[in-house]
Structure to design on (503 residues):
């Protein structure tokens, strides 16, 4: 089935595959002794192009003379989605390779279990499309295959398996599966859980005193003994029809958006885990969590700037959570525009100039000033950004800029450079407040949203444009899409010789 090629034709990828590492040879990948199971590497395998889940496009993978189409598990998918793949044999090993790299290099990205991948290819040829069952992290048994109940368990008078609501079941892992588990676990304090997952049942190992675990295997629903099915489901029907919504007295359908949202778990202050079952409303749930600042990472969402537990609790109560960067109206300045903001000023050539960056963010503009040998005065309100600046060595003010006066920074300054918060014309307020901290004859170089310049129907904006005209301001368009997380365009405003005006 697999093409046999010489090992010398390949490079081996490092343990973590990156775009850069795919262009160069590196250290050998750490392989499982018998290779990765097909269902832990591939989410789907088919004879034709397809979309997996909500929005994962398949990619071609060549196996011998047959072209399949597959979707990889998420970690590999996002690194390799632009590459052509093949499954080939090198000596006695079956490997997944990236084949359209520079200079004709072929890169081995994973070793596959030969029996597992060959069976998957045969099943895909026969059925046209196969899909791996949803797992918790990885699976000890191939998730492409739902096995028989008695292949995984055996009867026991000392129950070690739990069903719903921690009911003990009169079974334990079979000797063969237990041996696999013993080789795989990192801690021997764990419990085994059995739960329904659509038409199948999932066997999960969860550690008792540390976070983590994995799927042991997927069991065919038709093989579950009646005594086990009844013991697991309180209703005796094998599947409850509804669950109680704890935030109200109403009863919510099991597959409603609200009920599915309650299946998510905040494992700590920085991460929300998705359930192992497939969610009918996944697209909507993902949208809400990402809007709150979550970043998808392998079956869950990571948060860097707010408490994941608070976010999940708020969402489950039916409230909307904005990402912190949106709440703080923070849109980091790209390096080319940071340089432009500083380069247009005359103060850049004066080592004694007092230059103020009132909304320093991650320090993009301040870094450009510092590179000239001038120590900028910086201010930043958001604690996450403040830590970034302090780690860079800045002695940073931590105040709401609109409450500051020139006295807070030792008097009026020669130059102000910056990119204030955007939205609801707050950048207009910040720009005007900057002028109160600028000495007569000083200069200001600042990027604002285009909305505070273009909308002349608003009286405050008309008056602002008249001010800019009187001060001889030079305006430069910043194209839409320049800033991450917003498609709004900007305006760079430069006043070279500011003269205070009487009110």
């Amino acid at each position: 089935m697999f093409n046999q090629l010489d090992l010398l034709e390949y490079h081996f990828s490092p343990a973590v595959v990156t775009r850069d590492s795919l262009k160069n040879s590196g250290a050998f990948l750490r392989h499982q002794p018998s290779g990765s199971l097909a269902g832990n590497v591939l989410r789907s395998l088919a004879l034709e192009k397809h979309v997996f889940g909500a929005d994962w496009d398949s990619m071609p993978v060549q196996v011998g003379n047959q072209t399949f189409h597959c979707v990889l598990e998420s970690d590999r998918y996002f690194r390799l989605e632009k590459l052509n793949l093949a499954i080939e044999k090198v000596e006695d090993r079956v490997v997944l390779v990236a084949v359209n790299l520079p200079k004709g290099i072929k890169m081995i990205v994973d070793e596959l279990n030969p029996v597992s991948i060959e069976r998957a290819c045969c099943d895909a040829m026969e059925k046209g499309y196969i899909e791996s069952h949803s797992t918790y992290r990885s699976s000890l048994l191939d998730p492409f295959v739902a096995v028989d109940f008695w292949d995984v368990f055996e009867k026991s008078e000392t129950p070690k398996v739990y069903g719903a609501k921690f009911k003990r079941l009169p079974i334990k892992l079979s000797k063969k599966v237990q041996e696999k588990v013993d080789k795989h676990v990192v801690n021997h304090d764990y419990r085994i859980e059995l739960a329904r997952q659509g038409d199948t049942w999932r066997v999960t190992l969860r550690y008792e005193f540390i976070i983590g675990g994995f799927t042991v295997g997927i069991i065919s629903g038709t093989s579950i003994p009646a005594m086990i099915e009844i013991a697991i489901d309180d209703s005796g029907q094998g599947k409850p029809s509804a669950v109680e919504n704890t935030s109200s007295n109403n009863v919510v359908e099991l597959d409603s958006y609200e009920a599915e949202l309650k299946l998510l778990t905040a494992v700590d202050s920085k991460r929300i885990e998705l359930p192992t079952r497939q969610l009918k409303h996944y697209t909507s749930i993902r949208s809400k969590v990402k809007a709150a600042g979550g970043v998808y990472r392998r079956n869950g969402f990571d948060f860097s700037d707010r408490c994941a537990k608070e976010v999940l609790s708020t969402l489950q109560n039916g409230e909307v959570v904005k990402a912190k960067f949106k709440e703080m109206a923070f849109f980091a300045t790209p390096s080319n525009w940071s340089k432009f903001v500083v380069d247009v000023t005359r103060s850049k050539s004066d080592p004694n100039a007092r230059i103020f960056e009132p909304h320093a963010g991650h320090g993009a503009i301040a870094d450009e000033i510092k590179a000239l040998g001038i120590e900028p005065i910086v201010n930043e309100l958001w604690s996450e950004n403040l830590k970034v600046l302090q780690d860079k060595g800045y002695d940073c003010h931590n105040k709401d800029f609109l409450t500051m006066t020139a006295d807070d920074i030792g008097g009026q300054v020669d130059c102000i450079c910056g990119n204030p918060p955007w939205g609801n014309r707050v950048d207009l307020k910040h720009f005007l407040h900057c002028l109160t901290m600028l000495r007569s004859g000083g200069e200001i170089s600042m990027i604002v949203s285009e909305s505070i310049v273009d909308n002349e129907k608003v009286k405050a904006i008309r008056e602002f444009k008249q001010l800019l005209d009187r001060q001889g301001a030079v305006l430069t368009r910043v194209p839409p899409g320049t800033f991450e997380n917003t498609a709004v365009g900007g305006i760079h405003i430069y006043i070279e010789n500011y003269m205070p005006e009487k009110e």
